[in-house]
Write a structure and sequence with these properties.
The protein has three domains: 104 residues; 28 residues, no CATH class; 107 residues. It contains three helices and eleven strands. The protein is elongated.
């Protein structure tokens, strides 16, 4: 009886142990399938995510390709426009060059135009140049030269003998310069002839013109179709000599 009981108890223990091991095996299999399912789900998600990224990248690249194609078309159109503009400009340039070759002055006329340009660049006014050209003639009526002298003003020289007049007082001439220095570097009253001077020509009525530079100086005025010409040279200490004549044009 005792042996049967022991056997029954051993069998029950064995049966429980076998069931426990079976449950553990089932759990391990279920756990393995669960892990495999998780791995598969993660892989599927990653695959789907990559597919979406690839699709987005392809869409972006397609948009970029379309944009580049549009820019290329615009550049080609601009290039055609520029080529057309260059061709038109070349034609206009050739036409201008052809006209210049036909109309450009040659010989004495070309020399006169170059001289007129040079005189304008030197400061001669267009009105003055026009007057000289319009009144140019092979014959003219000129008065004899009239010579006078006056002192060039400096900060130490003022007053008498610093002005002369011409044409019965119609034109007054004065001048200014820098004072000379003696051997001991002492400032003198008279002007330094080795320095530039400024000479003023004042016409009754307030009109004034100037001549500036180193002596000798040349200057001319035009009043009522008559030209007055002046030449200034160095004179005795403190003075300049001025020679004047006038010419009337027929």
């Amino acid at each position: 009886m005792i042996d049967l009981t022991k056997r029954h108890m051993s069998y029950s223990y064995y049966e429980r142990d076998r069931q426990r091991r079976r449950r553990q095996a089932v759990w391990r299999v279920a756990k393995l399938f669960l892990q495999l399912g998780i791995v598969a789900a993660v892989g599927l998600f990653a695959y789907q995510f990559r597919i979406e990224q690839t699709a987005q990248r392809e869409g972006s690249l397609q948009n970029e390709i379309e944009g580049l194609a549009h820019d290329k078309a615009e550049l080609e159109q601009r290039n055609l426009s520029l080529q057309s503009m260059i061709a038109n400009a070349r034609l206009r340039t050739e036409e201008v060059e052809r006209r210049l070759q036909q109309d450009a002055p040659t010989g004495p006329l070309r020399d006169l135009m170059l001289l007129a340009r040079k005189r304008l660049e030197d400061g001669v006014t267009p009105d003055r140049l026009e007057f000289v050209i319009s009144n140019a003639s092979n014959s003219r009526d000129c008065s004899p030269a009239d010579g006078k002298r006056f002192m060039i003003r400096t900060p130490l020289t003022q007053g008498a003998n610093t002005a002369v007049t011409f044409e019965d007082g119609k034109i007054t001439v004065t001048g200014s310069g820098k004072p000379d220095h003696g051997d001991d570097d002492k400032t003198e009253a008279w002007f330094d002839p080795d320095q530039p001077v400024t000479v003023y020509f004042t016409v009754i009525g307030g009109t004034q013109s100037t001549a500036e530079g180193m002596l000798p100086l040349h200057h001319s005025l035009v009043i009522n179709n008559k030209e007055y010409r002046y030449t200034l040279t160095e004179g005795t200490k403190g003075f300049v000599n001025i020679a004047s004549d006038s010419c009337s044009y027929p």
